[in-house]
């Protein structure tokens, strides 16, 4: 349960915060275990203390009892020789046999029982015998020694004896006695008085006239040492004053009057502490083991969970990001766009920027895909740096998107677009060289353009289309008019497909071109026409780019090529020029296809000229170059159309597989009355001549243009002044010399 919860928490956490959670969990778990261990330790300690206290209480009680019993033992010892006919007789016999008394009532008690002093007093309480520390002493010693402390005991016993006190036969005590504690010779001592009586009862004795045997045992001597040894009491000894140390146990030794004469002290046995001493190392080791095991387990669980979550994050990251740039991919972009749109409100708006590299294909084709990838990464870096807080996504190819949210997203989004253009105005470093790239940007804004993500994306795409077609390196905001244009474009696309399927409305016209010198008709350029049944004539400048975009151009152009070759084959002379598009140039089968058409239409390759645009040529790759090589090898001529409108520079011309340059009509248009000639046109013609190329000037509308172009050495002329596009049969008639064509 707990582990599952931990795992769930880890999964839910942000990847960066997971390590912190793991350390938190481990610290908490160890803290809990530590607290539990501390609690157990406190319990054990309290229990040990309790058991110590109980044990000490018990020891004190036992010791007090033992002391009391030991006192009685002395009295009991005395009975061994005091309840004995021989002793009575020995004491009554005079002179007394002191040797006998030593052996039976005096020194013997010292050697056998350890009694320290023995005195015997007669019926008048006079001392008749004295022994101290194993040596018989003068009887008078009694007065200096035990006389004072023994006197009250003697009096008490005398009174008892006189009263005829008898002990029960069953009792272990044979005779009455008097016992007390007191100080003798400076020693705390037990003083026990016993009567010397007959054991058989055969010696008559007047009660109260007995000899009394007084035994003294010092408590600070062997007595207590023996006691301590017997009961295994550590450090047991007599102390005149209570010890300061509370941990030392003591039992006060009181006289019957209640006076404390000293203490029996010892170091108490503490079973709890002893047990603690024994189990603590084991306990500590066990706890450490438990600590370690729990810590280790948690660490392992957390680690595996971390690894799992890292793997999941990694998988999630891969699922959500573009591997090349690390940017969000389309899936994440869609999700985030949806989220941001659903959160809009409070005056906030969202700008969606669609960013597309200009001429990315050129880079890919000319510099190779690895360089193309570097370029994509460079653009990704630029976008990330200009829009650090926004979602930047790569939607595929060279297509990027930025989701930008702000208080006035239209304005800040436009600022962002400008920043992108500005950043791209500087050459981008690709590691092994710098390239200059541009991007077109389309913007749509929510909620102004709606809050439906699909619609918003569509509108940004339309705006991008507009930006691209408006001249690249531009940005455009979506407008409804754009939408209309797109709709119309889509309509045209649909209708073009239909026209191509049925052939309705499509036709080819031919615009002748002539030798500048002499004016002989040299051939005609095939130009497609589409006469829509409701829209009327649609100019090729409108539908050709659409056909290129939607992949119809190859079919369309091949149809034109076939028509043109078929028509030219009927002409008695002259060549036919056909426009090619970039898509065709990239197709490796181009030469094969053209050759097949020539065969089918029976037109000699020498009568066909193919026009490629400057830009399509620039976009061309190695494939295109080899295509051109093949075509030229079979005798087809190649013309570079619309020269001057693209980016090619003169220095490239020399190495190109082309035969002719067609000077774009925009240059020809600059040749105006009053202005004189055009130095640019003049330069183009000169350069072409130097490069071994012929020149055609297109779009000649005035006589002045014709004269000027002829004068500067332009080879071929084409334009409304000379002939407008016409039908194939009109061209045929013109070549046959039957009919001419007027300018349109
Ligand atoms: P282009 O290849 O440069 O064709 C010449 C264009 O200039 C033709 O326009 C022609 O009618 C026009 N033109 C000829 N003389 C004059 C003149 O004196 N003044 C002016 N202002 N224009 C003149 P068109 O037929 O409208 O074609 C436009 C463009 O469409 C062509 O330019 C060519 O790029 C493209 N195009 C036409 N037919 C085809 C085709 O079959 N295939 C492909 N791929 N493109 C075609
Ligand atoms: Mg042309
Ligand atoms: Mg042209």
Give the class-level CATH name of the largest domain. Alpha Beta
Bound small molecules, by name, code or SMILES, are: ligand C2E, magnesium ion
Strand content: 15-25%
| CATH level 3 topology of the largest domain | TIM Barrel
Radius of gyration: 65 Å
Secondary-structure-based class equals alpha/beta
Total domains: 4
Helicity range:
40-55%
Mean pLDDT: 87
Q: What is the approximate shape?
A: rod-shaped
In total, how many beta strands? Answer: 25
Termini distance? 89 Å
By CATH's scheme, which homologous superfamily of the largest domain applies? Answer: EAL domain
Physical arrangement of strands within the biggest beta sheet: 17-18-20-21-22-23-24-25
- Give the name of the CATH architecture of the largest domain: Alpha-Beta Barrel
Q: What does it look like?
A:
- This protein is α/β, with parallel strands linked by helices.
- It folds into four domains: 120 residues, no CATH class; 187 residues, Beta-Lactamase; 149 residues, Alpha-Beta Plaits (2-Layer Sandwich); 232 residues, Alpha-Beta Barrel (TIM Barrel), CATH 3.20.20.
- Helix content is 51%, strand content 20%.
- The protein is built from 26 helices and 25 strands.
- It has an eight-stranded mixed barrel, surrounded by five helices. It has a six-stranded antiparallel sheet with strand order 3-2-1-6-5-4, sandwiched between helices. Strands 11-12-10-15-16 form a five-stranded mixed sheet, sandwiched between helices.
- Helix 2 runs antiparallel to helix 9, helix 11 runs antiparallel to helix 12 and helix 19 packs parallel to helix 21.
- The C terminus is likely disordered.
- The structure holds ligand C2E and magnesium ion (2 copies).
- One magnesium ion binds next to loops.
């Amino acid at each position: 349960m707990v582990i599952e919860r931990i795992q769930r928490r880890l999964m839910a956490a942000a990847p960066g915060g997971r390590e912190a959670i793991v350390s938190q969990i481990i610290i908490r778990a160890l803290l809990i275990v530590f607290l539990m261990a501390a609690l157990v330790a406190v319990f054990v300690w309290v229990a040990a203390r309790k058991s110590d206290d109980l044990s000490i209480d018990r020891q004190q009680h036992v010791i007090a009892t033992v002391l009391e019993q030991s006192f009685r033992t002395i009295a009991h010892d005395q009975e061994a020789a005091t309840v004995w006919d021989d002793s009575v007789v020995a004491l009554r016999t005079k002179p007394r046999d002191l040797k006998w008394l030593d052996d039976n009532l005096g020194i013997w008690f010292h050697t056998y029982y350890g009694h320290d002093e023995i005195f015997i007093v007669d019926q008048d309480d006079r001392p008749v015998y004295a022994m101290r520390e194993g040596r018989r002493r003068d009887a008078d010693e009694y007065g200096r020694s035990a006389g004072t402390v023994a006197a009250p005991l003697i009096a008490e016993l005398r009174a008892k004896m006189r009263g005829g006190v008898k002990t029960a036969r069953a009792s272990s005590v044979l005779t009455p006695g008097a016992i007390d504690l007191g100080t003798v010779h400076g020693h705390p001592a037990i003083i026990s008085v016993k009567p010397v009586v007959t054991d058989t009862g055969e010696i008559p004795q007047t009660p109260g006239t007995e000899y009394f045997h007084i035994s003294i045992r010092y408590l600070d001597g062997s007595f207590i040492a023996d006691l301590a040894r017997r009961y295994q009491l550590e450090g047991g000894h007599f102390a005149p004053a209570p010890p300061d140390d509370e941990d030392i146990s003591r039992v006060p030794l009181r006289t019957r009057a209640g006076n404390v004469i000293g203490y029996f002290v010892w170091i108490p046995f503490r079973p709890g502490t002893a047990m603690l001493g024994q189990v603590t190392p084991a306990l500590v080791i066990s706890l450490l083991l438990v600590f370690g095991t729990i810590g280790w387990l948690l660490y392992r669980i957390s680690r595996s969970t971390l690894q799992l979550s890292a793997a999941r994050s990694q998988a999630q990251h891969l699922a959500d990001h573009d591997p090349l740039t690390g940017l969000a991919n389309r899936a994440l972009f869609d999700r985030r766009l949806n989220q941001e749109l659903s959160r809009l409100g409070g005056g906030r708006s969202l700008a969606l920027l669609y960013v597309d590299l200009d001429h990315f294909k050129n880079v890919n084709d000319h510099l190779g895909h690895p360089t193309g990838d570097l370029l994509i990464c460079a653009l990704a870096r630029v976008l990330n740096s200009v829009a650090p807080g926004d979602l930047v996504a790569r939607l595929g190819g060279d297509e990027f998107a930025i989701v930008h949210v702000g208080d006035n997203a239209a304005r800040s989004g436009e600022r962002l677009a400008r920043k992108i253009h500005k950043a791209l105005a500087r050459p981008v470093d690709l590691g092994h060289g710098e390239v200059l790239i541009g991007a077109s940007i389309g913007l749509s804004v929510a909620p102004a353009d709606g809050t439906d993500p699909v619609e918003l994306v569509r509108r940004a795409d339309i705006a991008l289309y507009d930006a691209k077609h408006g001249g690249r390196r531009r940005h455009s905001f979506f407008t409804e008019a754009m939408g209309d244009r797109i709709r119309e474009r889509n309509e045209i696309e649909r209708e073009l497909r239909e026209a191509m399927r049925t052939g309705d409305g499509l036709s080819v016209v031919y615009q002748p071109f002539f030798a500048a010198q002499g004016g002989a008709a040299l051939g005609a350029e095939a130009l497609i026409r589409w006469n829509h049944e409701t829209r009327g004539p649609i100019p090729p400048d409108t539908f050709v780019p659409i056909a290129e975009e939607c992949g119809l151009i190859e079919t369309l152009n091949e149809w034109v090529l076939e028509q043109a070759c078929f028509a030219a084959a009927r002409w008695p002379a002259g060549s036919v020029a056909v426009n090619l598009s970039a898509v065709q140039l990239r197709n490796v089968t181009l030469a094969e296809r053209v050759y097949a058409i020539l065969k089918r239409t029976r037109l000699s390759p020498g009568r066909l000229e193919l026009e490629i645009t400057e830009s399509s040529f620039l976009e061309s790759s190695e494939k295109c170059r080899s295509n051109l090589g093949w075509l030229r090898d079979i005798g087809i001529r190649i013309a570079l159309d619309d020269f001057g409108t693209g980016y090619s520079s003169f220095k490239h011309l020399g190495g190109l597989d082309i035969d002719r340059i067609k000077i774009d009509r925009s240059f020809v248009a600059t040749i105006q009355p009053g202005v004189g000639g055009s130095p640019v046109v003049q330069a183009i013609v000169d350069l072409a001549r130097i490069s071994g190329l012929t020149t055609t000037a297109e779009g000649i509308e005035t006589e002045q243009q014709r004269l000027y172009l002829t004068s500067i050495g332009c080879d071929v002329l084409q334009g409304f002044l000379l002939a407008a596009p016409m039908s194939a049969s009109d061209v045929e008639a013109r070549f046959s010399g039957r009919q001419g064509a007027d300018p349109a």
